[in-house]
Design goal:
With 646 residues, this protein is mainly β. The protein is 8% helix and 46% strand. The chain contains six helices and 40 strands.
């Protein structure tokens, strides 16, 4: 029985194993004069001036180490040889990067020979299709959009930095990763990215169930010395769109441990903080410009949205003159403001253990020109209703923590290095525990009324009385509401005394400024609470919206994304390092999404309120008697009280 359980466990473990191209740096250390392998050569790896780890070459002079993507410096040290450091090595994500080092024997000097790394013309390890964009390329590209940068890779397309499409697939088929975990929504600023890997084919098992492609980003880490930068970009005065961007970052060590053989210290705890603020006067400018009514024109039309033409009320906006409009190269009142804050802490108590905690917060506030759906009035808002553009606010918070432990013996640069090197069939064994949480909130609303839902369609208070209703058999069947007066905001007592400022929606209330044909009937009004006649809320056959329009839509969403990931891996050398190296990874990922949202059309609340206010009244109570009336023919008609059910 125990053998069966062992077999079942082995099969389940095998299902988790994947042969992937782990991000690693491999190579060989040799004598520069004769090409012989250097055994037990100490190799130190630095990133941003911080010592990442130390390793030793094996019996054949070969070495291999798993790393995070980024730019590294590698230093080789051996007794009797001059130390050599190779700088600027771009370790590309998802690849087995190669670096061979030749060191020279002779008098051992304190100085270190420094040479610059030259990238090979041909990649030896490339099992996936796509590309990698390094921090240096990101800095030199004329864009700050992640999707626009990724679109420089063959097989990807994006328009104006918008949604990205991989090999003709849909935009939702593209999956985004940050520091190894899947994310959604707004990305961190590209100035905080060490590397962007674009995968369009040959997708590894670790990326899961994607049907298009993947864009995996690696964030920058702390530096060994206090450093920072300020960047400001603007197009103010150069175009009509008003692009402004301010970026500030600072990085450095918090705690260093002094080494016994050097005046320099090794960074134990480091940090990186950054903030970016971006303002756009118009984030989606028109190709040919637009026309809008001047503010003085809007004020006049809001006070008198209708005028009598041949005794018939007509929309005043249909009779605009040339001097009442102006031409603009941008969409008015469509400002976009975005704030991004990022932070990262790296803790490395010893060379083979590191803990990284990072987080970011973003807020985007966007005024936009709405479409026709779910809004009161039809057509464009640009001409007459640009001052009432709605607003959307999106807040995203993320936190990511990773613990990594590299198992096995590390290089001791203070010990004798002429001992016999041992060769193991399993090298670079490690395990990683990683977890992340993301929360995103979005709220879309009318910028004036916000979450005061009954203000959306409110014009004022309609006074009235209930008159008795009779059928053709002269029987009392119920009561009918007749309007006796209208007041806006508690100021007016009749329709003729009109104050345009007393209603929360004065332009709608002003539609009733011209006398109504049947002022006693609520449906006879051109606008009342919760309804605006489609004959007067637009002009030119729905080409443009009339003044004073309200965005009849309120939307709120609150989404969570929690991820837990456990991975491990090692290099398997069945016949020694000369016979080839196989990297094996296995792990498990748990992901939980919680999506919550609701949408309200506030105008409908007034209709529902009217329906449900008297929902308990089901007719007249014929068992009771309140009185009677006599019609002109002399017949007596009984009047009954209202029948109410509990």
């Amino acid at each position: 029985m125990s053998k069966r359980y062992l077999l079942l466990f082995s099969l389940s473990l095998f299902c988790l194993i994947s042969l992937n191209s782990q991000t690693s740096l491999t190579g060989k250390v040799t004598d520069e004069s004769n090409g012989e392998a250097i055994i037990q050569c100490g190799i130190i790896l630095y990133k941003n001036g911080i010592q990442v780890t130390t390793i030793v070459s094996d019996f054949d002079g070969n070495f291999s180490v798993q790393l995070d993507p980024g730019k590294y410096d590698v230093e080789a040290r051996y007794v009797g040889y001059n130390a050599k450091r190779v700088t600027g090595i771009n370790v590309l994500a998802g690849k087995a990067n190669t670096l061979n080092i030749k060191i020279s024997s002779g008098i051992q000097l304190e100085a270190v020979e420094v040479i610059e790394y030259k990238a090979p013309l041909i990649e030896n390890d490339n099992t996936t299709q796509g590309g990698v964009v390094t921090a240096e390329k990101i800095k030199n590209l004329p864009t700050k959009s992640l999707t626009a940068i990724a679109a420089t890779t063959a097989g990807l397309s994006s328009v104006d930095g918008g949604d990205i499409y991989i090999r003709g697939g849909r935009s939702d088929a593209t999956v985004f990763y940050l520091d190894g975990l899947r994310i959604t929504g707004r990305q961190i600023p590209v100035t905080e990215l060490e590397q962007i890997q674009v995968i369009t084919g040959g997708v590894e098992a670790q990326y899961g169930d994607l049907t298009g492609g993947a864009i995996s980003s690696t964030s920058k880490g702390p530096s060994s010395k206090l450093s920072g930068g300020i960047e400001y970009e603007t197009s103010q005065g150069l175009d009509a769109f008003g692009y402004n961007l301010l970026n500030v970052n600072v990085s450095g060590p918090i705690y260093k441990k002094r080494l016994t053989d050097s005046t320099k210290g090794r960074t134990i705890l480091g940090y990186r903080l950054s903030g970016q603020f971006n303002i756009l006067k118009d984030d989606d400018p028109p190709a040919y410009g637009i026309y809008r009514a001047k503010e003085s024109t809007l004020n006049r039309l809001k006070s008198d949205p209708l005028q009598l033409i041949g005794g018939t009320p007509s929309v005043s906006g249909q009779f605009l003159e040339t001097n009442e409009v102006e031409y603009l190269d941008y969409n008015p009142n469509t400002k976009n403001k975005a704030l991004d804050l990022t932070g990262k802490l790296d803790f490395r108590p010893v060379d083979n253990i590191d803990l990284s905690v990072s987080g970011n917060y973003s807020r985007v506030v966007d005024r936009f020109n709405p479409g026709d759906d779910n809004t009161t009035g039809q057509g464009s808002w640009t001409l007459l209703n640009w001052d009432n553009n709605p607003i959307t606010q999106t807040d995203i918070f993320r936190v990511n923590a990773r613990f990594r432990h590299r198992l096995g013996k590390l290089a001791d640069l203070n010990s004798p290095q002429d001992a016999e090197a041992t060769v193991s069939n399993i090298q670079n064994l490690y395990y990683t525990l990683q977890g992340g949480f993301q929360n995103s909130k979005t709220e879309t609303q009318d910028w004036r009324h916000k979450d005061r839902f009954f203000d959306y369609g409110y014009l004022g208070k309609f006074h009235g009385r209930f008159d008795t209703v009779f059928n053709d058999q002269l029987q009392h069947t119920g009561y009918n509401f007749l309007v006796t007066g209208f007041e806006q905001g508690g100021y007016n007592s009749n329709l003729n005394a009109f104050d345009v400022n007393s209603s929360p929606n004065p332009a709608y209330a002003a539609l009733n400024k011209i006398p109504i044909d049947e002022p006693q009937i609520l449906d006879g009004y051109r606008a009342f609470n919760g309804l605006v006649s489609s004959a007067y809320d637009n002009l030119w056959s729905n080409l443009n919206n009339n003044v004073g329009g309200v965005y009849n839509r309120y939307n709120k969403s609150d989404n969570d994304l929690a991820t837990l990931q456990v991975t491990s891996g090692f290099d398997f050398l069945p016949g020694g390092s000369k016979s080839g190296r196989h990297n094996i990874q296995f792990g498990i990922t748990y992901e939980q999404r919680t999506n919550r949202s609701w949408t309200l059309l506030p105008f409908s609340l007034w209709n529902l309120a009217r329906l449900y206010t008297n929902n308990h009244i089901v007719g007249v109570d014929t068992s009771g008697f309140e009185g009677f009336i006599i019609d002109p023919s002399g017949d007596t008609i009984k009047i009954y009280p209202t029948l109410i059910t509990p």
